[in-house]
Specification:
The complex is a heterodimer of chains A (300) and B (271). Helices cover 75% and strands 1% of the residues of chain A. With 300 residues, chain A is mainly α. Chain A has two domains: 2-49; 69-295, MetI-like (MetI-like fold), CATH 1.10.3720.10. A two-stranded antiparallel sheet of chain A has the order 1-2. Chain B is of the alpha/beta class and 271 residues long. Chain B has a single domain, classed as Rossmann fold (3-Layer(aba) Sandwich), CATH 3.40.50.300. In chain B, helix 4 (121-131) packs across helix 5 (136-149). Chain B is globular, with a radius of gyration of 19 Å. Classes of the chains: A mainly alpha (300), B alpha/beta (271). Chains A and B meet through helix 8 and helix 9 of A and helix 3, helix 4 and helix 7 of B.
Chain lengths: 300, 271
């Protein structure tokens, strides 16, 4: 009867396994916390030198000028311009693909499409960047007069294809998790496959679909290499997609690879931009989670 | 008796068979395979208009499969093959000229587990009507009418346009599914164990409803509950191993079963 007294928590293997798992799991959490904390000090340094009002309201981002200005709005505008163009490409294509994967494709075709999308996800974005700069931009210049060699348009269009697999895969998963019984109900009422897909499955999966789009948008906001190469590095406040612009990420690349002396305001500005970027992506991820929770349909 | 011999030789025992003129549905020599496995063996049976026919039998006897071949729901399962005819108002619904979608618009179906759409109560009932192009005030009238016929109206009339069908209780959800099915006024209503997921009170409500529906509709119901079959049906089919063993008026089936398997099943000795 002695064995009945041996609590599982006292078992040394159990304790060891549990401790190892907690340790490993906390590494990721601590890393994230560490990143935020390390940013924090530098960000505070920045705001000691530059007032928050200027950071938020000024319309110029010119840290290297003789009279530097630190208004983040051109970088945010550049980021959102490229992201918006990317979403205009990725949402319709990605959702159409998702409906096809979830409702129409079977067996071999389905496996191939999913495989291709995964392959797409694996291509380094530097490749997409040069594709945008060297192939897409020259093609667009033939039809759009006044298109800069570095421009938001071709970066955004190609960015759309970078985030397409995210939209398609996550949205397809959401649609595939709609219970079979609901599809059957629609078929039994004489719905055709396209009516089942568009009137039943798509709305039922809407929360997951919206989450897919938000996650793709947050991925687009964080995209760095592609925009640095193809969209240029000139922070101007514009919504004209033909212009050369700079995004938050491309500024960080520019500043981090440049030669601002450590301790200068321009150096600290790097962290302020990084922190803003972190907050924005965090916000988008929280928004995605909230949408999923708030609008998820429970079927049981 | 060996199961295979039973399948090969059995001739359905029929008591007071339904005359051809009274049949809404006339199934003739129906065989069905899922891939290589045969699930229905030479089923021939008639379902009379404005009556409730119950299909009973042990699990895996093919009762749901037979039900689902009456509105071509089996077509949705890959690898299904059907031989024989199902005449609905004299038309073979398996004729290559016939569109299965059109078949399903004429034949309503209620499933084992309530499966409302994640939409409002109104939109649930309106779904089939919208597919038929019904709009505006006619749509609204017919939704309300269907909710009344399904005995759900009084419970939901204050909230049916706002509240999701998923918020109703299990019994209410199943009545909603019945309302959704009858809103398009299908002459034939198929029910696949519609009360198996419900408590006794909700079951009672559905059974009362089925008896009322009989005036307007022809009902075929699969049930594993023999008391239910005897309470609500006019005729009963007993199936075993994909074969229609015996069919006849419910009262005679339950008091004087002719086949030893039927007797064994209804007295609870197997199944």
């Amino acid at each position: 009867m002695e064995i009945l007294r041996e609590k599982p928590s006292r078992n040394p293997k159990e304790v060891l396994t549990f401790a190892a798992l907690v340790l490993l799991a906390s590494v990721t959490l601590l890393t994230t916390a560490g990143i935020v904390l390390s940013l924090f000090g530098e960000v505070l340094q920045f705001f000691r030198r530059v007032p928050l009002a200027e950071f938020l309201l000024a319309r110029d981002w010119t840290p290297l000028f003789a009279e530097p200005r630190y208004g983040i709005s051109p970088l945010i505008a550049g980021t959102f311009l490229v992201t918006a163009i990317g979403l205009v490409v990725a949402i319709p294509l990605g959702l159409a693909l998702a409906v096809y994967i979830a409702e129409y494709a079977r067996g071999e075709a389905k496996a191939r499409i999913k495989g291709t999308l995964e392959l797409f996800e694996g291509i380094p974005t530097v490749v997409f960047g040069f594709f945008a700069l060297l192939t897409v931009t020259p093609l667009l210049q033939k039809v759009i007069p006044g298109l800069n060699i570095f421009n938001a348009l071709s970066a955004g269009l190609v960015l759309g294809f970078v985030i397409l697999p995210y939209v398609a895969n996550v949205a397809a998963d959401a649609m595939e998790s709609v219970p079979r019984s609901i599809r059957e109900a629609a078929y039994a009422l004489g719905a055709r496959p396209y009516e089942v897909a568009l009137r039943v499955v798509f709305p039922a999966a809407l929360s997951g679909i919206v989450a897919a789009i938000i996650l793709a948008a947050s991925r687009a906001i964080g995209e760095t290499m592609l925009v640095s190469i193809a969209a240029g590095q000139r922070p101007i406040l514009t919504l004209d997609p033909r212009e050369t612009i700079a995004t938050m990420t491309s500024y960080i690349v520019q500043a981090a690879t440049g030669d601002q002396p450590v301790g200068s305001t321009a150096y600290y500005a790097l962290f302020a931009v990084g922190f803003t970027l972190f907050l924005l992506t965090l916000l988008f991820n929280i928004l995605a989670q909230w949408v999923v929770e708030r609008y998820r349909e429970r079927y049981e | 008796m060996n199961a295979l011999d039973f399948l090969k030789d059995h001739e359905t025992i029929r008591t007071d068979p339904v005359p051809e003129a009274e049949a809404l549905v006339d199934v003739r020599h129906l065989n069905l395979w899922y891939g290589k496995a045969q699930a229905l063996f030479g089923i021939s049976v008639r379902f009379p208009r404005n009556q409730v026919t119950a299909i009973i039998g042990p699990s895996g006897c093919g009762k749901s499969t037979l039900l689902r071949s009456l509105n071509r729901m089996n077509d949705l399962i890959p690898g299904v093959r059907v031989e024989g005819e199902v005449l609905y108002e004299g038309i073979n619904i398996y004729d290559p000229q016939v569109d299965p979608v059109a078949v399903r618009r004429h034949i309503g179906m209620v499933f084992q587990k309530p499966n409302p759409f994640p939409k409002t109560i109104f939109e649930n009932v309106a779904f089939g009507l919208r597919l038929m192009g019904v709009k505006g005030s006619e749509l609204e009238d017919r939704v309300v009418e269907a909710l009344k016929r399904a005995a759900l109206w009084n419970e939901v009339k204050d909230r049916f346009k706002k509240e999701s069908g998923l918020r109703l209780s299990g019994g209410q959800q199943q009545r909603l599914c019945i309302a959704r099915a009858i809103a398009v006024e299908p002459p034939l209503l198929l029910m696949d164990e519609p009360t198996s997921a419900l408590d006794p009170i909700a079951t009672q409500a559905i059974e009362d409803l089925i008896l009322e529906l009989k005036e307007h509709y022809t009902v075929v119901i699969v049930t594993h509950n023999m008391q239910q079959a005897s309470r609500i049906s006019d005729r009963t089919l007993f199936m075993h191993l994909g074969v229609l063993v015996e069919e006849g008026p419910t009262e005679l089936m339950f008091t004087k079963p002719k086949h030893p398997y039927t007797e064994a099943y209804i007295t609870g000795r197997f199944g």
